[in-house]
Write a structure and sequence with these properties.
The complex is a heterodimer of chains A (314) and B (536). Chain A has 314 residues and is an all-alpha fold. Chain A is 78% helix and 0% strand. Chain B has 15 helices and 19 strands. Chain B is an alpha+beta fold and 536 residues long. The chains are: A mainly alpha (314), B alpha+beta (536).
Chain lengths: 314, 536
């Protein structure tokens, strides 16, 4: 198992390096300039040129790349060109809200999607199945901001059951946390509930047709044991893949939910960094997102290896 | 049920109830700041950079007036008034002596000295174009004591006091010498001013929130507050600028009482917001913004004045401002390049903007000009709604008089980057852009960078060159007589419109909204947070 993990880690290094190169080139070759963002729209050429010099943007691109990469290898993401605050500090400030929101949303997703998917597979072809499929299509198709505003309108401004915006960490108390974060978590989870419920249903239908399920039923096992003890375990590999990549997508695609509910997370930091052309911050965020995907894929591989021994011996 | 069992049961139940109560109390938020008065505001734009001398952005200037103070303030009659310092002017108008008032302290507790102010003025002169112009005629600035310094001119300059008092970009904010000596182009490393609020660095989260606390060591002047002059008396303990990228979310938050103030509402949401309970909508900044069209004077066809005139005559300012603002209560149209209703406003040159038969004249002028039908590149930024419709409307009107026009839609930062580039159209250059300038930034010929026609790096994008206009601006700068200034300002305006240095396309108000618990929000050239009080 350790050899398997080591091989996977080794193969991730060139991926991270390629991501770093692409991040740097994308950011520097795209139109825009942090000096202009700092100077403001009324600035003259001379003002902008002075700021460019002070930021080192007048240096040749290869020199800037080597400087950045050297710092990156040493674990230093640099300093924000706009706010002059260390990039690592800016990212740390914003990590908690996004991770907490994603975990809460993933918890809701798993609590709803897996049982619903199993139910739909069990009752395949019946009205429950069709209802689940219809709701999945709606949940997957409806834009996140529409769901967010509908929930705010219904449960925030009208019924006043939940807050309309803001962030409370679990450390602020469970009740304030639930009051503030439930609507964004439901909003964020809707798409993933639809996705994972469908995936669970499809995977379960395939497994429920296998011989060993018939044998299990013939042995007189209760239907609950058949579904969750035998079928779901064997249907787990594709579901784990979707859950893993879904979590990475949640972290990297949370920006709309964060904007609608005014949650100061990574998503909004990305948008601000891009709008301000804050090169070191954008580069760090792209690299870290890449690393997140690599790490989650590694965890998925490990989960495969645990659930299916054939994978780790192949 | 046996009695002893009942007792045990009751005791156990009480213990559990107490435990649950304690646990729940632990889960509820602490009200540690119950006695603190906090005003939470959603400002227009995110405060990202913090140096108010480096940046021309309005949000950075507003931040500047929170943390820093100025030697002089500008009152609501556009007159400079003593703020940090009293002043004395020699009879020949060449020597200005500034005396700092007693008790001024920086936020780190050290006293404000004349030496700090000299360094601050010198730094300002290196960044601000009008400051640079003034410094060009300054013979010396010298501290003669801890509380006095003398500014000596080499020749008459009629606007020393106005420039030192100006709230326009970039105001001369005072800061300690060690900050004022930050190398050019670099931002100051920390926020130490002497203004009515202190910046809380530990709570600064760019793109999320900015926190200010009342500066208890600040000594306000005795005079009543008037714009940036007079007594800056602070009645709230904390001011929090909360970023909200989505204005609908901000309006929801205002309605629910999560925030107290929104600096700039979208005009089309003003009525909806006003209908919310306990919410008021109004204008706290009596000077608004002017929609500004700009041609690239360095590239054909707008290097030809006849083509520029044809383009100006093709456009109707009222129609252009209506395209984005809609509600006539919130916009005005006038010929003034200094803003409607400002002291130098006039109707000089208005025939270029208003009147019948302008489009026919545009067609004639274009036909007789050097224009060869090459497509014009109009940049349309799509982020800021106040001036995103104008390029589309302008393109249509220009096509109607014979221009060939291509509109390129870009994000705001891309427009800023491209508009500051002088490359040809084939390499990503541009022919026309639209923007918006605060009236504070254009209210006289000296301050207005838009009409700088030097063609140099001190001019705004588009880089017009017109020696006659520059001569008029220099004459305005050196004139001390108000009547003469008024007449030169008229001549400047006529020249600007005749040469089509830029396109003034109407003026709109900044509409704000606040909870009714927010009282005495002061009027000002920017949003100001002194004088404000909060009721329960």
């Amino acid at each position: 198992m350790y050899g398997f993990i080591f091989r996977r880690l080794l193969s991730a290094l060139p991926v991270v390096f390629i991501i770093a190169v692409i991040a740097f080139l994308l950011v520097h070759l795209a139109p825009g300039d942090p000096a202009v963002a700092i100077a403001g729209d009324g600035a003259s050429d001379d003002q902008i040129a002075a700021i460019r010099r002070s930021l080192g943007l007048d240096q040749p691109l290869p020199v800037q790349f080597v400087t950045w990469l050297t710092s990156l290898v040493q674990g230093d993401f640099g300093t924000s060109m706009i706010s002059r605050i260390p990039v690592s500090q800016l990212i740390l400030q914003r990590t908690e809200p996004t991770v907490v929101l994603a975990l809460y949303a993933m918890t809701i997703t798993l609590l709803v999607a897996v049982p619903v998917g199993v139910l739909a597979a069990w009752k395949s072809g019946e009205w429950v199945d069709r209802l689940v499929l219809a709701m999945s299509v709606i949940g997957f198709s409806m834009p996140v901001f529409v769901i967010g505003y509908l929930l705010i309108g219904a449960f925030g401004t009208n019924l006043r059951w939940f807050a309309v915006q803001g962030y409370k960490s679990p450390g602020d108390g469970l009740i304030p946390f639930l009051y503030t974060m439930t609507l964004p978590a439901i909003t964020l989870s809707t798409t993933y509930i639809a996705l994972i419920a469908r995936m669970t249903r499809a995977s379960m239908i395939e497994i429920l047709g296998e011989d060993f399920i018939r044998t299990a039923r013939a042995k007189g096992l209760q239907e609950r044991q058949v579904l969750f003890g035998h079928a779901l375990r064997n249907a787990a590999v594709p579901i784990i893949t979707v859950i893993g990549s879904g979590f990475a997508m949640m972290i990297s695609g949370v920006v709309i939910t964060e904007s609608v509910f005014n949650i100061p997370g990574i998503g909004r930091l990305v948008v601000d960094a891009v709008l301000g052309r804050d090169y070191p911050l954008i580069q760090a965020l792209i690299v870290l997102t890449g690393v997140l995907y690599v790490a989650i894929n590694l965890l998925i591989d490990i989960a495969y290896a645990i659930t299916d021994p054939r994978i780790r011996y192949s | 049920m046996p009695t002893n069992f009942s007792r045990r049961w009751l005791t156990g139940a009480s213990a559990i109830a107490m435990g649950v109560s304690v646990a729940l109390a632990g889960l509820m938020p602490a009200s540690a700041q119950a006695d603190t008065t906090t005003l939470t505001a959603v400002m227009n734009g995110n405060l990202r950079s913090l140096d108010p001398t480096v940046s021309t952005a309005q949000i950075v200037r507003t931040h500047g007036f929170m943390v820093y103070d100025t030697l002089l303030g500008m009152d609501e009659h556009y007159q400079p008034q003593p703020q940090m310092a009293e002043y004395d002017v020699s009879e020949d108008g060449l020597v200005y002596t500034f005396t700092l008032r007693d008790g001024l302290l920086w936020h780190d507790g050290t006293p404000v000295t004349a030496d700090d102010c000299v360094a601050s003025l010198e730094r300002w002169g290196r960044y601000d174009s009008t400051g640079g112009m003034m410094m060009g005629v300054v013979d010396s600035i010298e501290a003669i004591s801890d509380t006095q310094f003398v500014l000596t001119l080499s020749e008459p300059f009629g606007h020393v006091l106005q420039l030192i008092a100006k709230p326009s970009p970039i105001p001369p904010f005072m800061m300690p010498r060690h900050l004022a000596e930050t190398p050019d182009g670099e931002q100051i490393p920390e926020q130490i001013g002497s203004g009515p609020f202190r910046f809380v660095a530990e709570e600064f989260r760019p793109g999320d929130r900015v926190v200010y606390v009342r500066n208890d060591d600040y000594l306000p002047r005795d005079e009543p507050s008037s714009w940036t002059a007079g007594g800056k008396v602070v009645h709230v303990d904390r001011v929090v600028w909360q970023s909200m990228p989505d204005l609908q979310t901000a309006i929801n938050a205002l309605g629910s009482g999560d925030i107290d103030f929104i600096e700039q509402l979208p005009h089309d949401l003003a009525q909806v917001t006003a209908a919310l309970p306990n919410v008021e909508v109004g204008i706290v900044r009596p000077v608004g913004m002017q929609i500004t069209g700009r041609m690239n004077h360095t590239l054909a066809p707008f290097d030809d004045v006849e083509v520029r005139q044809a383009a100006l005559l093709a456009l109707d300012p009222e129609e252009m401002i209506q395209a984005s603002i809609g509600n006539p209560d919130y916009y005005s149209v006038c010929a003034s390049i200094y803003g409607c209703g400002t002291p130098l406003a006039s109707d000089a040159g208005s025939e270029w903007l208003f009147g019948d038969g302008r489009r026919d004249r545009a067609r004639e002028l274009l036909a007789a000009s050097s224009y060869d039908g090459t497509p014009l590149i109009l940049l349309q930024q799509t982020e800021l709604p106040a001036f995103s419709p104008q390029p589309l409307l302008a393109a249509q009107r220009l096509r109607e008089v014979g221009f060939n026009v291509e509109v390129q839609s870009v994000d705001w930062q891309t427009q800023l980057n491209r508009q500051n580039s002088r490359v040809p159209v084939s390499e990503g250059g541009w022919n026309m852009i639209f923007s918006a300038w605060g009236i504070t930034g254009i209210w006289d010929p000296l301050i207005s960078t838009v009409i700088n026609a030097s063609g140099t790096g001190r001019a705004w994008a588009g880089w017009p060159v017109d020696e006659e206009l520059e001569a008029l601006r220099r004459e305005f700068a050196s004139t001390t007589d108000p009547d003469a200034q008024q007449s030169i300002a008229r001549a400047v305006q006529e020249r600007v419109l005749e040469q089509v240095i830029y396109l003034p396309m109407g003026e709109y108000d900044i509409v704000s909204a606040w909870r009714d618990s927010v009282q005495n929000m002061p009027a000002g050239p920017l949003t100001l947070f002194w004088s404000v009080s909060m009721s329960d």
